[in-house]
Design goal:
The structure holds two protein chains of two kinds. By secondary structure, chain A is of the alpha+beta class. Chain A contains five helices and five strands; from the N terminus they run βαααββααββ. Chain A has a five-stranded antiparallel β-sheet. In chain A, strand 4 and strand 5 form a beta hairpin. In chain B, strands 1, 2, 3, 4, 5 and 6 form a six-stranded mixed β-sheet that branches. Classes of the chains: A alpha+beta, B alpha/beta. The interface of A and B includes residues 14, 94 and 108 of A.
């Protein structure tokens, strides 16, 4: 089975609902990934929300492209934008008790992305386009 | 339904019942934050958040609950979660918050959490 779907939105948080519906709709074609829908939708939503909140400068409208590719037991999500570079870097541990004690409300999205997905990779090709790649594999028994 | 709706009620013992419906994400979290800030400004730090009709939550929404939970504790209050569905609870659990927040499944149980 090979599925490839693409959605392009502008960097408005109002478009996140469209992103989530697009992911859910695409996953319905793959029974293996449909059971993982909640986590996958959340991880991609977090990635796109990061670009909307922190990528483009205020009052600048720019594109965000989300491409989902499912081949057998691997889902590859590529998220492309033309915002400022953002490299999520290496995974860091989350001390949630300290987070709660301090009443901190940010810094959770990247942790969720890494926890749900098997790979989170960033690359910035020469034409100024960021690409964040999220890979999810289904473990087959 | 609008993307996020909130209604407020109050129990005879003064505990606030805040019903949160819809979708809590980067687009809507500030509405919830504003609502909670208004409650806390009025020194209402004992709150039950009824999430029975909350259909989606992202880290932006969880972050509001973390800040609200922490501030309630600092003010000798409490924030208790009522009737979160499996999908919403799963996000709390992914963030290892399952044992930090109090999750309840009936109003009676939620009220008991206030002693």
């Amino acid at each position: 089975m090979h599925i490839q779907e693409k959605l392009t939105i502008t960097n408005s948080a109002k478009n996140l609902v469209t992103v989530r519906e697009f992911i859910s709709r695409t996953l319905t074609h793959s029974p293996a990934f449909a059971t993982e829908e909640t986590g996958i939708v959340l991880a991609i939503d977090e990635a796109v929300a990061n670009i909307i909140e922190h990528g483009y400068p205020p009052n600048v409208t720019g594109p965000i492209e989300i491409e989902l590719e499912i081949a057998d037991a691997v889902l590859v999500t590529r998220i492309r934008d033309r915002a400022r570079p953002f490299d999520p870097g290496q995974p860091t541990a989350l001390d949630i008790r300290a987070h709660v004690k301090a009443g901190k409300r940010n810094g959770l999205g990247l942790f969720l992305m890494r926890k749900i997905m098997d790979e989170v990779r960033y690359s910035r090709p020469v034409d100024g386009q960021n690409e964040l790649t999220l890979v999810k594999r289904i473990r087959q028994n | 339904m609008r993307r996020l709706e909130m209604t407020l009620g109050q129990f005879p013992n003064g505990v606030i019942l805040m019903t949160v419906k819809g979708f809590l994400d980067t687009d809507t979290y500030e509405d919830l934050e504003k609502q909670i800030n208004q409650l806390y400004a009025a020194k209402r730090f004992r709150v039950i958040a009824d999430l029975a009709e909350l259909r989606y939550i992202s880290s932006a929404g969880i972050g509001v609950f973390i800040a609200a939970f922490s501030e309630a504790q600092e003010n000798q209050g409490k924030l208790v979660i009522l009737n979160a569905n499996d999908k919403v609870k799963q996000v709390f659990e992914l963030l290892e918050l399952g044992e930090i927040f109090t999750f309840t499944t009936s109003r009676e149980e939620a009220l008991k959490a206030f002693g």
